Amino acid sequence: IGWKILSVLLALGLWFVVINIENPVETRKYTVQLNIENKEYFSGKNLVVSNMDIMEATRVVVGVKGERLSLDSLSASRTGITATADLTNAEINIDGGYADVTIDVVLPPYKGSTVELISTSIQKARFDVEPYIREKMPVSISISGGAAEGFIIDSPVASPAEVTVSGAKSAV
Fold first, then answer.
1. Which phi and psi (to 5°) does residue 120 adopt?
2. What would the pLDDT profile of 91-123 be if each residue is shown by its tens digit?
3. Best exposed site among 47, 108, 130, 157 by fewest CB in 10 Å?
4. C-alpha separations of 53 from 42, 46, 61 in Å
5. Contact 130, 48 (CB under 8 A)
6. Would you give the distance in Å from CA 36 to the centre of its chain?
7. Tens digit of each residue's pLDDT (9 = 90 or more) over 51-100
8. What is the value of pTM for the model shown?
9. Helix boundaries (H) for 47-114
């Protein structure tokens, strides 16, 4: 029984050696966070992004093909694949209320082996854009309930009499 256990261990060891020497080409999928660059770009055009919180939480699934050891290194790497949406490259359709931005996926460089991008789950990110407006609005006071016994309510006066509200047109 000892020889059988030894032969299984040798076979497994030999298999690991051969698979690492061969270094076969594999395909793997990685999920990365979408990085958004130049967020202030739309404010320079008097626009506001109404779904920025959703876009900041977007994740991109990236398909990568390469040698097994390179993909193992990529999995362990802290500076791996990046997916970036640069808002300065936006195709703005203000009538439709959106801006499409191409997502750039970058793989880290590898010496002596090729790692190539084969697919991405999202090629373009759609940002909902609206005109940014500022409006002065009067402050009105509404009183609910009545005065306590022995008291009277005088005419209330708002201070300040008006405020400036700014933001997305639909919200203002």
1. -135, 145
2. 998 887 899 999 999 988 776 667 889 999 999
3. 157
4. 15, 19, 19
5. yes
6. 7
7. 999 999 999 999 999 888 888 888 877 668 899 999 999 999 888 789 99
8. 0.69
9. 52-56, 68-76
- 63, 18 in Cβ contact below 8 A? no
Q: At 2, which helix (H) or strand (E)? A: helix 2-22
Which of 133, 126, 125, 124 shows the shortest CA–CA distance to 47?
133
Q: Do the beta carbons of residue 25 and residue 66 sit within 8 Å?
A: yes
| CA distances, 155 to each of 95, 143, 152 (Å) | 46, 10, 10
Distance of alpha carbon 101 from alpha carbon 125, whole angstroms: 5
Contact between residue 91 and residue 45 where contact means Cβ atoms under 8 Å apart = no
Assigned token pair, 116: 């190539």
User: How far is 130 from 98, CA to CA, in rounded Å?
Assistant: 8
Euclidean distance between CA atoms 87 and 111, whole angstroms: 32
